[in-house]
Design brief:
single chain, 344 residues, 0% strand
């Protein structure tokens, strides 16, 4: 391994000294052996005509080999060839696809290139929000020219668009896609969007407070933001605030409010809320105890998600042990009717 690394460094030094023939020979040997870095370098030599006659088709071939191995710079260079029609037929859709692969790995130049395509609507639908997001990530990753190119977008990305940009930047930092993962910066971006009424951002702020992720854990603040998103129809937020009212976390316990939020979330297909409704009916928490209703909700949760199917099935069977065959049949009928009325 050390020998291979040494060979590569020697080849790079040859390139830096502009001894392109020697660099070409060295990179060619390593590229033939499958080294992605060498394949990218060899493609660059062909593209520039350094140490070899310029050949875009050859460059594309080597860029593609490296790109298929996940080499971000090769993916960007392959995108450039498709955008310009060098060595391949011009294809902006393909260019965008390769830029995106590199952009998601945090390559600033690819992010800036992808932003340009969104500005122009080439290979992708024209989209100021996506353009702004990718341009911002490019700036964060050190692409100085991105800020200058982003300036014309400032007047167009306002109001809801600006909140959406802030939310997406928060999501990028939260997941580490396109930038190094940073939960504190994620919360900062989510908060900016949340303050403008962006429901998904409000949910993420709440979840951050709930988990103590990027911000000090605070169940009261989590409840405030979950409810704010819930009021705007966010199903997972409705389920989450329902749970907080259910167990009295961050808010005073209130079974009636818990059921109300669970039912709103359940109607939107949230399986956790559906399961929790089964639990509340089964134990008589906030409602009159009803095995029939518990069976109905557990059956609905079981049908809607692999994630909760096992737990829902086990709970349904426990309830069934207390029911007559006629009651079980009625519970299944109620579940079918509810699912038909609330199909999505």
């Amino acid at each position: 391994m050390a020998g291979i690394a040494g060979e590569f460094e020697n080849a790079v030094q040859s390139y830096d000294r502009k001894d392109y023939s020697k660099a070409f020979a060295a990179f060619g040997k390593m590229a033939a052996g499958g080294d992605a870095d060498a394949q990218f370098r060899l493609g660059t030599l062909y593209a520039k005509g350094h140490g070899v006659k310029q050949s875009y088709p050859e460059a594309v071939g080597w860029f593609r080999k490296a790109a298929m191995q996940g080499h971000a710079e090769a993916q960007n260079s392959l995108g450039v060839r498709y955008e310009r029609g060098q060595g391949v037929a011009k294809d902006h859709k393909e260019a965008a696809a390769w830029y995106r692969k590199a952009a998601l790995q945090g390559l600033a130049l690819a992010q800036a290139n992808l932003a340009d395509l969104y500005v122009k609507g080439l290979g992708v639908a024209k989209d100021d929000v996506n353009a702004y997001v990718w341009s911002s990530l490019a700036s964060a990753n050190g692409e100085v020219a991105a800020a200058r190119k982003r300036a014309p977008l400032e007047a167009r990305v306002t109001g809801e668009k600006r909140a959406e940009v802030q939310y997406r930047l928060g999501a990028a930092y939260a997941t580490g896609q396109g930038v190094p993962q940073d939960h504190q910066r994620a919360v900062q971006w989510f908060m900016k969007a949340a303050m403008q009424g962006h429901a998904m951002a409000q949910y993420q702020v709440a979840a951050s407070y709930d988990r103590g992720l990027g911000i000090a854990q605070d169940y009261r603040q989590a409840a405030v933001w979950f409810e704010a998103a819930a009021v705007r129809g966010h199903a997972r937020a409705q389920s989450a605030i329902g749970y907080m009212y259910d167990i009295g976390q961050g808010v005073a316990a209130d079974s009636l409010r818990a059921i109300d939020w669970y039912e709103k979330a359940a109607a939107q297909g949230d399986v956790v809320a559906q399961y929790n409704l089964g639990s509340m009916h089964g134990t008589g928490r906030g409602v009159n105890q009803s095995d029939l209703q518990a069976h109905k909700w557990f059956s609905i949760a079981e049908a809607h998600s692999d994630r909760t199917a096992t737990a829902a099935a086990e709970s349904r069977k426990l309830v069934e042990a207390r029911m007559t065959p006629e009651q079980v049949a009625e519970g299944l009928r109620l579940a079918r009717e509810w699912m038909k009325a609330n199909s999505r």
